[in-house]
Write a structure and sequence with these properties.
Elements: H1 9-22, E1 26-28, E2 43-47, E3 50-56, H2 65-75, E4 80-85, H3 90-96
Parallel strand pairs: 3-4
Antiparallel strand pairs: 1-2, 2-3
Length: about 100
């Protein structure tokens, strides 16, 4: 784990959600994904005709094939930005959620 970004995925998600809400994004996250399709991103955000789907991982976390499949499919949809992000991607997260 990078010593510069020791956040857990849970703490990272909390930080991203706080930023999104401060910037006026509506935030959706599945609390109990046991009945949801495998791999759907952790966060789905919407604001003013745009949408962002984020799969969050700690610095050591790895995305599953299904998670990568969802990110690719959603990113191909006009108006949706979909990304796999880690705490070290903070600057680009801020840019996407500007």
């Amino acid at each position: 784990m990078s010593t510069a970004y020791p956040q857990t995925e849970k703490d990272f998600q909390r930080t991203v959600v706080e930023l999104a809400k401060l910037r006026g994004w509506l935030v959706y996250r599945t609390w109990l994904p046991i009945h949801s399709p495998a791999g759907f991103p952790d966060l789905f955000l919407a604001r003013r005709g745009a949408a962002v789907a984020l799969e969050l991982k700690s610095e050591r976390g790895k995305a599953s094939d299904k998670q990568l499949e969802w990110i690719a499919a959603l990113d191909a949809v006009p108006g949706i930005t979909a990304r796999l992000v880690q705490p070290s991607d903070w600057e680009s997260i801020q840019e996407v959620l500007r």
